[in-house]
Amino acid sequence: MDNNNHYSIIIIGSGPAGLTAALYNSRAGLRTAVIDGSEPGGQLMGTSFVENWPGEKKILGPDLMMKIREQVQSNGAQFISGEVSHAELEKKPFSLTINSQRKLTADALIIATGAYPKKIGCPGEDEYWGKGVSTCAVCDGAFYKDKPVVIVGGGDTAMENAAFLTNFTDKITVIHIREKLSASVAMQEKVIHDPRISIIYNSTTESIIGDGKQVTAVNIINKKTGATHKLTTSAVFVSVGIAPNTALFKNQLEISPQGLLKIHDETKTDIEGVFAAGDVFDDKYRQAVVAAGAGCKAAMDAERYLKKM
Predict the structure, then answer these.
(1) Which CATH architecture is the domain 119-238 placed in?
(2) Residues labelled catalytic
(3) What is the CATH T-level fold of the domain 3-116+243-308, as seen in this structure?
(4) Of 10, 185, 188, 208, which has the fewest beta carbons less than 10 angstroms from its beta carbon?
């Protein structure tokens, strides 16, 4: 075993859950590593202002994550850039391969790989991905100043995207499949009475149209009447939920039909010494502060496990 590449605990993922776990484990004096993943910082890196994080009245999502990251680093945790390309959980110590090259081992693991935005699955979505189709209004909204834009979805993310886009345009249309928005009341209030935002209910995006280089329109179908119409737009922001990043652990850990890790006793997976935290198993709350709490619990459970070893 290579001591330079062996850790007491490795945390896979660097969002609120992973960073909180790393904070607790490093402060406990454990040799701790955090695998950044493909999106260091997690989903908050693609948000605008966060207004419900305790102690922060209003802070940009990326700024919040950088503050937590700096705190974790100051306590001695090591950050490793890259993604886990292979995991061997059948024997101990657990083994992880990073970017198909570097191999790391650990006495315990915390899986905090989070989730990724779902796609609509309609014609034109893949063709115009990055050419007007996006999941991140914060990342791409400035490209559409004074242009018509469409948001697909009715949850908190869709409402946040709509509110953020008012910084650039007053031609915003939300397309939602149900009769009522599914977002929290606080998020709905940011959008529902804003004259710059119109909402089309009971409808879905049938296809996304473009000129070969850029999105130009969407075809919308009313699910109640079957009526269709074409809406001119320069961008489509897909905000229809998220799916957990669990493919790496297929056939090794218990995974639900929805793709969520199955856990027992708060944070434990079905393999002793492997714990989970955050959106990788939580499909109910999906809040950064809840993920951070889960990271704390996973870290404490992992520490107890290591002490027993």
Answers:
(1) 3-Layer(bba) Sandwich (3.50)
(2) 136, 139-140
(3) FAD/NAD(P)-binding domain (3.50.50)
(4) 185
